[in-house]
User: Which sequence fits this backbone?
């Protein structure tokens, strides 16, 4: 990895942490997942996964909702899914002109946010149930409203924001999808 890529991973990790603290009072509506996804899309799956791990490494350790090691590990190793999926999509769509398929891509990105969040929430709910010795059924039932809110908010954020944010990153920073720079 070159210095530019490392600095972008660091900046996106800091942005994830800062936005999580800024939105601490808005439960289940966060932009961290989106930032990790965009990081993966623009920088590749490994970089995106790193952003997810590093973000939870810090935020999870100094979490205003408390620190539970098992849940911290579950979130830290589930968050990278957004970066991995973003990186794989970035590679697949590397030659796509966003202006030609903007609406279709927005729908795809919204669906990706929805499905990725379902996976993330299922893992974290199962771990939560295990830590507090609750049944899997209870965890899923109790967590359903939170999961739905998280999925719907991520679907909206991913669907509305991915194309414009990636377009801006490409123009302003010279970021190339699944690479580092065009310059």
Assistant:
């Amino acid at each position: 990895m070159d210095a530019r890529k490392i600095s972008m991973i660091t900046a996106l990790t800091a942005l994830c942490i800062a936005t999580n603290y800024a939105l601490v009072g808005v439960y289940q509506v966060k932009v961290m997942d989106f930032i990790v996804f965009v990081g993966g899309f623009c920088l590749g799956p490994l970089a995106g996964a790193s952003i997810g791990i590093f973000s939870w490494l810090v935020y999870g350790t100094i979490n205003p909702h408390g620190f539970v090691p098992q849940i911290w590990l579950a979130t830290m190793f589930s968050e990278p899914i957004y970066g991995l999926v973003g990186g794989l999509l970035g590679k697949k769509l590397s030659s796509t002109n966003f202006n030609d398929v903007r609406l279709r891509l927005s729908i795809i990105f919204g669906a990706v946010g929805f499905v990725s969040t379902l996976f993330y929430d299922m893992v974290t709910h199962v771990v939560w149930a295990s830590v507090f010795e609750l049944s899997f059924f209870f965890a899923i039932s109790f967590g359903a409203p939170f999961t739905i809110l998280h999925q719907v908010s991520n679907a909206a954020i991913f669907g509305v924001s991915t194309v414009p944010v990636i377009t801006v990153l490409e123009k302003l920073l010279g970021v190339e999808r699944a690479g580092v720079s065009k310059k």
About this structure: The first helix runs from residue 3 to 22. The chain has seven helices and no strands. The helical segments are 3-22, 32-43, 45-59, 69-78, 80-92, 102-131, 136-173. The chain has one domain: 3-173.
